Amino acid sequence: MLEILDTTLREGEQTPYVNFTVDEKMEIAKMLDRVGVDMIEAGDPSVSPNVARAIERIASLDLRAEIVAHSTATRLSIDRAKACGVDRVAIFYATSKIHLDSKLRKSEKEALAIIQEHVCYAKSLGLNVRYTPEDATRTDFDFLVEVCNVAIKAGADRISFADTLGIMQPHTMFERVQKLRKNLLPCKIDLHCHDDYGLALANAMAGIRAGADCIHTTVNGMGERTGIPDLAETILAFHNLERTEKYKIQPLMELSSYLEKVTGFFLAPNKPITGQNAFSHKSGVHTNGILKDPRTYEPFDPSVLGRERKIVIDKYTGKTAVAARLEEYGIEVSAAELEMIVTRIKNTGDQRKQLFDADILEIAEQVTGRKIDVIPHDISALVMLEVESHVYTSAVVRRLRGFSNVSSVYEVTGDHDISAFVNVENVAALNNLIEEIRTVQGVKRTETRMVLKKYSGSNK
Ligand code: HCA
Ligand code: CU
Question: How many C-beta atoms lie closer than 10 Å to residue 95's C-beta?
């Protein structure tokens, strides 16, 4: 059965500009435990005192998952891992020629001795031990087998086959893992696949098929450079495509959003599973199919994630989608009116980047000549902010520009320091966004004005 080790707290914190507080790490660990991951890699205690503190606190939470500390191959570092009270230490030491020659400046023989000594040492402290040959996929295969078997004999019960540079493909991964399995003494095999070519999850799935046991993931696919497989994508792919129904799906969205919030590392809209567009449909042909039977264009029902499908209305839209949208607002129109509304939408869509429900309602009002008195579901708002006097306004502006729902930001004169335009799906989302804006360091006060109608200038 597939196992998952989530390393959001270690590899994920290696994402450029991402740092968690101890409390955030504990919260993330608890959420991961609710999902049911088998192991949580909580950090390398030698990185900083706060990293060590977080590992210690997580180890004392008594979670279901096995708690792992990452460590370099030094006694001091292994001692620190032990002092944190973790179940397992994961010792990494590179084995490829380029890492040995240029980075570590050690011969293969010296590397073997170091690895054996430190695995033995960790084992003697009563820890479970994983050994990671860093850059394993660029390591001479015979040497890789030799190193791993030395580590297994010294007490490691897991080997992490690390594709540190993400250079595998599904078929090469399959072959390598199969060969590794044949040549290694009994042990579990973890797959740590980096996503430099966007192949990480595909490679990991191929490795599992070839006999590996465990996939390393992070929430939102974070990590060094382009990261490693995303937890939600991994779980859904195995659940739906491989029928491995071992993990809880419902908490995944909340976990992903929480990470976006505390890291300021926002997902691309087209990110699978958790991205904003994952269940949005646009073209007339697609929306027509979806409205008749969602299975026509959805690989699975978004409600399993607590998500809703969304029909985007613009120039690609057909009559079915427009009629359905108007019906949502309780607006009935004749066939002729609908025809005219769709024509207007197509013309407006040609000139505009984005059509809001307010625009669609306005068009319906003009075409039918009847007053329509409803509040649109998707909304724009103007958020005005006052900034603490000791903080640079530009620093707050920079943070605001990182929010995916903020479309423009102005530094202004007058009672407020900053005005930001935001676009959100509904009032609840607006509330969440304002809460998030309030957590930006230096924001003293916010005032929000909902936009009722929006007009473009003559040159737009
Ligand atoms: C790194 C180390 C590592 C270790 C993976 C593991 C890698 O280079 O930062 O211990 O399984 O990618 O090789 O993350
Ligand atoms: Cu890594």
Answer: 26
